[in-house]
Amino acid sequence: MEQQKTETRSITAEQRKRVEEVCFRSLALIGRNCEYLEQHFDRTGADESTRQAVADIDTAAIQLDRTLTEAITLLEFLREDTKPQLYPIDLCELLQQVAAQSDMIRAQLGVDIRLDYGGCTACCVMADRRDAELLCLHLLSNALHASREGGSVCIALRRTESGWQLTVTDDGCGLPGEDVQAALENRRSFLGGAQLGLLLCRECCRRMDWSLQLEPAPEKGTQGCGAHSAVHGRKPP
């Protein structure tokens, strides 16, 4: 019975791999055809509605690609096929890499990103680097989705008794449960998404024995942090 159970799990993993290959191959084909049509239109001309239709297809393909990647990663975490590899990493260095595109984000979205280490130069925690990067990127992505042009996102690190607390604060639409207006703004900000980002954040924290919580920001917006999220990461032993 145990052998049959293992074989079924192995077949399922193989099927999953084939599904991934088919999906991403199809998305790549859509992308190449959109690029071809845009080049063709540049040579032959096309009306604005036709160009917009191709642009919409390309945008939908990019969104589907991102959603598939998130869903596949989430399934991997839930199946526990791979265990996290916990090593000491410097959160200050990691966050500098995450925020390296702040100039481009400001130019594209009009949102400022600010890092605040509270005077610290190194913030060492026990983490799986891939999980920690995924966590930080999704917390930042959620904050940017909630923000408006002219807004700001603050990424702060503070020492606690057991480790470090990472806090990502935006001044955007706020949590959906605060009031009716906040719920409407939140729905508009995240419309069309699969809302897998926070699930991935929670799974990353669970795997690394961190903790995550969401709460209203002191003034407006949403605050997410991790070594309890706020996010709380454990110090190396």
Automatic annotation (TrEMBL):
<keyword id="KW-0418">Kinase</keyword>
<dbReference type="InterPro" id="IPR003594">
    <property type="entry name" value="HATPase_dom"/>
</dbReference>
<dbReference type="GO" id="GO:0007234">
    <property type="term" value="P:osmosensory signaling via phosphorelay pathway"/>
</dbReference>
<dbReference type="Pfam" id="PF02518">
    <property type="entry name" value="HATPase_c"/>
</dbReference>
<keyword id="KW-0808">Transferase</keyword>
<dbReference type="InterPro" id="IPR036890">
    <property type="entry name" value="HATPase_C_sf"/>
</dbReference>
<feature type="domain" description="Histidine kinase">
    <location>
        <begin position="27"/>
        <end position="222"/>
    </location>
</feature>
<protein>
    <recommendedName>
        <fullName>histidine kinase</fullName>
        <ecNumber>2.7.13.3</ecNumber>
    </recommendedName>
</protein>
<dbReference type="GO" id="GO:0004673">
    <property type="term" value="F:protein histidine kinase activity"/>
</dbReference>
<feature type="region of interest" description="Disordered">
    <location>
        <begin position="218"/>
        <end position="237"/>
    </location>
</feature>
<dbReference type="InterPro" id="IPR005467">
    <property type="entry name" value="His_kinase_dom"/>
</dbReference>
<keyword id="KW-0902">Two-component regulatory system</keyword>
<dbReference type="InterPro" id="IPR050351">
    <property type="entry name" value="BphY/WalK/GraS-like"/>
</dbReference>
<dbReference type="GO" id="GO:0000156">
    <property type="term" value="F:phosphorelay response regulator activity"/>
</dbReference>
<dbReference type="GO" id="GO:0030295">
    <property type="term" value="F:protein kinase activator activity"/>
</dbReference>
